[in-house]
Design brief:
Two copies of one chain form a homodimer. Chain A has 247 residues and is an alpha+beta fold. Helices cover 39% and strands 22% of the residues of chain A. In chain A, the strands form three sheets. Chain A has a four-stranded antiparallel β-sheet with strand order 1-8-3-6. A four-stranded antiparallel β-sheet of chain A has the order 2-7-4-5. The structure holds a DNA duplex (30 and 30 nucleotides).
Chain lengths: 247, 247
DNA sequence: GCTGCGCACTGATCTAGGTCAATCGAACAC
DNA sequence: GTGTTCGATTGACCTAGATCAGTGCGCAGC
């Protein structure tokens, strides 16, 4: 929560027509929800644009008091906890447009750490303000319920007992779909995280991730060059990830 | 959602002072949230008491349209999905007082199956009504956010890569705490689910669950007799489950 | 150019837990 | 009582993936 170059009163230099940043999921949601100028007073304290965070900088740490959720504007954020034996358990990667911190509401503290993997820009949304606004904008309330509910499902995905191949395929297809939905190429993208991060996310050893990548490449499913990924056999990868991504 | 002996207009025979059933988490929440008689009109369609469901009967199935969340009044409910190879993945067990179906909001369909493990009584809460009410009762809205947020955390617990011992210990201590918080004995309780269900929940083979139970018994951590559990060395079990249950 | 550093990769082993196959035993029907 | 059934248990293997130990290699600093 200690952010560099914080801009209080977010709307200040964004122009009058853009009360939410273009990449935020809430933007559309709020517009659809009957937002109008009469809500402007709240909006002035609702959104706060911050960043850039440098690679390795923390957005918040486990135990920090919670009062805002964040939308990624650019870059990638990793959330993780450190378990009893000091091992890092990666909980998720957040791409532009995705929302971080919904799991912090219940205990009013962030239950995990969040760190930027590259140069990251964020919007902070004051949660109390958001909630207050939601009582007057049923569509916004519904959107929040929906986002929260989605995150329950996402968290459950990881928990099945799947093979290293299935996990890895699902990880790649998941990224591909998410990039595609933001208008990036679904078939060529850069991994912004290390093999170790991927492994900690998939509950594998980083060596296993290397081996699976290599085998996928040998079998013509994809091309891997360092952190560059090219999907070559989408159908086969979809097939492998079907049991995890469901449908 | 095809319920036996449904009572429409839930309040009918519950007495005027008890607009929510005593075991429902919402009961307290709504009372704290400024609930008063003026909300009575909504309440008449908000809650619907149903049951009993017999062992093995389904409350809902994957893909059913969602319009209500359920609070368990008595008995145990198991939620699960069936993966591509036909294996059952148990997502959770729900004890009296716990809420089922929050993960269905996002897609307006239940994403899993729910089946009763013994004789089950439920309250259904119409979710649209609940949400509408929440716009006028900020405390209720907050409570819903909190429940949803909690479920994200719960779903993440399973997903770590922990040993069979840790998983099993965490499962037992989790049950123990949940029973305790409902006023039951934390040290002696009956498992309402089969070894296979436990194994499918913990992502182990049922044989492994048997072996861990036996070893825990040999080491004096607990006494197991069929489905009866007695916790003997709470400290050691807490220790084993610490990395999963986190504090 | 060289050197050093940190990932990424690869190969050789090890092991936790899965799988397979019996056996046991409580609960129920008769 | 006697079967019968179905989950639980136990033992004997086996295997996916972890671990350990190098090796390779792009890149930054000089």
């Amino acid at each position: 929560m200690t952010a560099p170059s914080r801009k209080t009163g977010a709307m200040a230099d964004d122009g009058d027509d853009l009360h939410f940043c273009s990449t935020c999921a809430f933007s559309a949601a709020c517009m659809q929800s009957g937002y109008d100028k009469s809500h402007l007073k709240e909006l002035h304290v609702l959104v706060e644009h911050v960043g850039p965070f440098k690679e390795g900088e923390h957005l918040f740490r486990e135990g920090d008091p919670f009062n805002a959720i964040a939308a990624v504007r650019s870059g990638t954020v990793k959330t993780y906890v450190t378990d009893a034996n000091g091992r890092e358990q990666v909980q998720g990667f957040f791409l532009p447009g995705e929302i971080i911190g919904l799991n912090a509401i219940s205990h009013s503290r962030y239950p995990c750490n969040a760190v930027s993997l590259d140069s990251v820009l964020l919007c902070w949304f004051s949660f109390p303000t958001m909630a207050a606004l939601a009582t007057r904008m049923p569509g916004l309330q519904q959107q929040l319920f929906k986002l929260l509910s989605e995150d329950i499902g996402k968290a459950a995905l990881l928990s099945g007992n799947y093979s290293a191949d299935e996990r890895t395929a699902a990880f790649l297809m998941g990224l591909s779909r998410r990039y595609a939905s933001r208008g990036f190429s679904p078939n060529r993208f850069l991994l912004t995280m290390s093999r170790t991060d991927i492994a900690n996310y998939l509950r594998l050893a980083s060596e296993s991730v290397s081996r699976v990548f290599r085998r996928f490449q040998d079998e013509g499913l994809l091309r891997v060059d360092r952190r560059e990924i090219e999907i070559l056999d989408r159908a086969r990868l979809e097939e492998l990830s079907r049991s995890i991504l469901r449908e």
